[in-house]
Amino acid sequence: MSNSQIYLKSGFPRAPLGNGIGRYIGQLQRVTLKFCKNHGASRGVRDFIENDLLNYAKENPGVVVYCKPRRHRGPVIKAEYLNGETHWIPCQKFSREDVVKYMELVRTQSYNGSSLRLRKFWHTEFPSIQGPWTPFTNRDPKLNITEFPNKEIGACTKYGPSATEEIIRLFKEQQLQEKLKEEGEIEEH
């Protein structure tokens, strides 16, 4: 393990407070595309502005997009988020498709996770010698050589009646007994 992570800020994985509970609020506030009108390294950004920028702005009405031409400077995507963080993505010699991918990336991420060393909520001095648990830990090994799709494995597992089904059955029995009592076929004890 390298020691480069020692100097990073540390913290827990986080999401903006309550985001997605009622409705999702996109965290990207502003994008500034800085580029040179003449230099070849800015060609991908210029192509994005000419062909895709209007569609991007229509699809993302909550994001403000600025275009800032600069002479003899490399192209940069500057993204500003609601929590006050700013990310700079240098895009020298990017193609138009690369710029589209990075514009989608800055739109969907809420903070720069790569600059944060993640901390765990628990710590142990004696880790398990068996290794960490995964969903495949206790699976049958014959699944490794099975050809899919497989009717036997894919068959729906039928369990006994659910609690709701059992309550409905008891209720219908109770109604039937009450109906028979009214007709006088069953005597009360």
Automatic annotation (TrEMBL):
Protein name in the entry: Large ribosomal subunit protein mL43
GO biological process: mitochondrial translation
Family: Belongs to the mitochondrion-specific ribosomal protein mL43 family.
Keywords: Mitochondrion, Ribonucleoprotein, Ribosomal protein
Superkingdom: Eukaryota
Coiled-coil residues: none
GO MF entries: structural constituent of ribosome
Gene: 100121818
Source organism: Nasonia vitripennis (Parasitic wasp)
UniProt key word DNA repair: no
Ribosomal protein/NADH dehydrogenase domain span: 37-110
GO cellular component: mitochondrial large ribosomal subunit
Subcellular location as annotated: Mitochondrion
